[in-house]
Amino acid sequence: MELKIIPHPSKCRYRGIHGDWLVVPSQKYKTRKFPMAEYRIKLMAFNSAAVIAVGIVASIVTSTIVASNAYRSKFANAEIAQQSIIVKGKATKRVRSDQGDWWITVKGTGESIQSAHETLDIGMKRVDSFLTDKGFFNDEITRGAISTTVFYDRDFDGNKTRDVIEYELSQHIGVSTTEVGKIAATAGEVTDLLKDGIFVIGGTPSYTYSGVSDVKVQILANAAQNARTRAEEVTNKAGGSVSAIKDIRQGVIQITTPNSTRVSSYGIHDTSTIMKDVSVVVTVEFGISGS
Question: Residue 269's domain is classified under what CATH number?
Answer without folding.
Answer: 3.30.110.170
